[in-house]
Model the fold of this input.
Amino acid sequence: MQTWKQLPGRAFPLGPTWDKRGTNFALFAKNAERVELCFFDQDENEISRYELTEREHDIFHTYLEGVGPGQKYGYRVYGPYIPEDGLRFNSNKLLIDPYAKAISGDITWDDALFGYEISSPLGDLSFSDQDSAPFIPKSVVVDQYFDWQDDVSPEIPFNQTVIYELHVRGFTQLNVRIPEELRGTYAGLAHPECIKYLKSLGVTTIELMPVHHFVSDRHLIERGLQNYWGYNTIGFFAPDSRYAATGKNGEQLQEFKEMVRAFHANGIEVILDVVYNHTAEGNHNGPTLSFKGIDNQTYYRLEENEPRYYTDYTGTGNTLNSRMPAVLRFIMDSLRYWVQEVHIDGFRFDLASTLARGLHEVDRLGAFFDIIHQDPVISQVKLIAEPWDVGEGGYQVGKFPAEWAEWNGKYRDLIRRVWKGEEGLMGEFAQRILGSPDLYMKDYRRPTASINFITAHDGFTLHDLVTYNEKCNEANGDDNEDGEAHNHSWNCGAEGETAIEEVNQLRAKQKRNYLMTLFLSQGIPMIVAGDELGRTQHGNNNAYCQNSALSWINWEKADAGLQNFTAQLIQLRKNHPSLSRKEWILGNTIEADGLLDIGWFNVDGTQMQHHDWERIAPVRIGVFLHGEGIVSTDVKGNGILDAHFFIIFNAGADDIAFKLPEGGYPEKWSVAISTGTLQAGMTNLSAGQMVDIEGRSVTVFRAS
Done:
């Protein structure tokens, strides 16, 4: 047995802290009676145990001289096992340290991982004496030092941000330009070929789908599937070791930091998609992996009258109890760690409404948001909410505090309806492409509060959105009953006996229409990795369990034309700040020429009146954007005035003749970009001229 000199140590910081002589261990366990620290060799054989005899502030702690980086460990926590009262201590279960900075690998599913006897008729009221240590990954002591080489965050202004949501594995797994041993890893993502591609596309910010160490549920493993998306966290300080090319004994943390440093060196921000609303331990029938066995009553929200059961606002079986000071500290410690130690630039919070809940209602002034607001570290990075959960009253789009941006689900839904050809949407369409002032122009919020998107990881890809009327999720093993029931987009294949080639052309145009609308809207655009390449999941709109070619980007079948079109749109947006304003467009008169800073036009060239907004017809509208006073910068750094733009949206199926504005508006226009038949670069179009606008198309004119 390995032995080390044991000293009292200190209660803070929580977790393992190596100081080059030894390691301090500190574990919060308010309701526990005693705690043992178990050490393992590289083959995960237990080599020693130490009781944490010191206790203060509900924290057990000790210091062991000689324990250093790479050392594997876990906890056994002793206390009463009374599930009826919400107490689930079971010292037969080795537990992952909630503050572990690295975790050695994946779970091997076995009945021993459960605190109760699976086969017992008493269910979770029974008690399991099986040792879970052989089946659970071990926490790992790490060396926190890293040479950041003067790393500085790019700090992209919010209004200039273009977000690219991607999966670490899916982005590189099939990319032959990446060395095979690096594909699907942090190192692969940081490879020069990946960074070169992202820079050529023009995105400013990558949003990584969950990289906190997560668990694949047992039922998925038994079906031969895996949790691919990663929304099932067990280690909130640890980058998942399955995405590491260099090793699982702490090397994954160094590799992750190298990836962040590489992105920053190339002017690209890194945002993490984080899941602080629940853990991988599930409900009362779930396994005992960490929090449940350390202090179930503190970490989880339990039903008030039946604490055996878990309050579930997330649809996953449990909800972290963000009302408890210790849990709030845990979340904040995790967030600060990723910012200060790993240099992360921001966070997207999964099911963020859950974090806002006080008792049962969603409280926008909840303790979590108050703490975020006053925190000098977290309040300075990008904060993005998924503003809903599955509980009653959980849909909170437009109701988050001023410091937050939100995934604008109303934008997504409305833009899909518009391009489906639905009628009577003119007024709401105008609100959405202006940054949704009806939702955000209060409490000093700006258009940048709106994260605009057409698709996300959850749902159809952009290609599938215009290709499939119904989901095709049979591969998930749930009889195609999972995922959103129907496709709410216009399906180009629903045109009857239209020739295949014509249908394909229509689909291609619809993809461009969606992208064009997205990048012409005020607010922050977000696209999903691969949408610009025509990625398909063959109709699967819930590929959470598909760690396979179904979900990975197929680079060999990339749509180069769509990719180039997307890059052009992003560059257009970057070159013209009138397309990505910091402040609201209020319809004010510009003194220089007496024109409004925005104008709305009918097909006949007349300005929209009140009754026009109520017209029952597909969206057919012209939008004038005044460029005067909107300053851009040329390649030499000189300030220049932006151009005036006139944008025509025709969401109807029929071609129309649209009259360009006249009467003080620019005399000459040229086509900047179009999804229809008008060619970019077409010049000498005159004020008052009738131009043919193809059905289901968008055209951008720029004042010559």
In short: Residues 585-703 form a domain with the Immunoglobulin-like fold (CATH 2.60.40.1180). The chain is about 20% helix and 20% strand. Residues 500-520 form the longest helix (21 residues). The radius of gyration is 27 Å.
